Amino acid sequence: MPILDIQRRGQQIGRIRIGQQVATASGKMRPAKLDTFRFTTQSQYGADAIATLYGGVVREWNGEFEVITEKSEIGVTVPPRDQIVSQWYEMWNKGGCMRRCDSQIEQISGNPCLCPHANDPDDLNQVEDAAKERARLAGMNPPRACKVVTRISVMIPDLPGLGVFRLDTGSYYAAVEIGDAAAIMQVARDRGVFLPALLRIEQRKRVAGGTTKNFPVPVLEVTSTFREIASGALNAGGITAQLPPAPNEPRRALTSGRPTPAAPTAPVESAPAQPPVTSQQIADLAVAATSREEIEALAEKAKADCPDEDLVCIGDDTYEELGPFLRTRWRALSPEGRDEA
Length: 341
Prior knowledge:
Blueprint: H1 4-9, E1 12-23, E2 29-41, H2 44-54, E3 58-61, E4 64-68, E5 73-78, E6 85-93, E7 96-101, H3 124-138, E8 147-154, E9 164-169, H4 172-191, E10 195-208, E11 211-222, H5 226-230, H6 233-236, H7 238-241, H8 279-288, H9 292-302, E12 311-313, E13 319-321, H10 322-332
Parallel strand pairs: 1-9
Antiparallel strand pairs: 1-2, 2-4, 3-4, 5-10, 6-7, 6-8, 8-9, 10-11, 12-13
């Protein structure tokens, strides 16, 4: 596809929010935090699907539709595109974005940043002190400094549409913590992998000056390990392995995480190489087996790619090492091919 910058951005089909505007006694509006996710979208069909999947009531809102759901955690997929996570310091007013900077250069004017920032970006104490002072100035009316804005775009495979939902947050903690997952997401993006993840609202508290402040922080938790991504195990599992569990479904068992071996050079007349089998596939076949011979054949097949200590799901969110499970299953089958009582 020649227009790569357009193809990679993806259509934004809605927003995910963790707050709303509520009326005060004077009739003015003020922001209020939520304990569950709030969706807004221009699609009534999409809003109906959100309410069905996550609970809540569809309401009209500013020419769109909104649903305050009953969920504080949802399964999402991080697509292999650019602009999945963006972070800027920004100052807005009714006329739009007045400043956007990276703590060093203001992007709109090209001039140096006007907000407080650490003289030494590697000094964590300086960085945190500058962030607190910037937040204090940004909270003034009118604001006198930029505030951090983190934007996260994710796909939700259980909702209609192939675009992304975007969540914006001004949380300092979200801005810092999302960086921990940045390296993993970059590796996955380079490999063209969709990352399964959980998006959740985590309630935090901070004690300062004798006052306890409770506040929500959006957290994007990648549920695949770095080994699964780097070794190619996530690729080998196919697109289904790259999806988060459906609502109310437990997480699927991990694969072995071993790299997929390169196909050996073979004469033209040789048979094509067979794809490696996963530990979970072996376990699923063992559950359905009706004879000890089948179990023995599965054990032989597992020798090359499935170590005995691999964890497999054997039902009801129960996990067991593959080797002991196969041996237990073999003993449970009588020589005649029936499960022993």
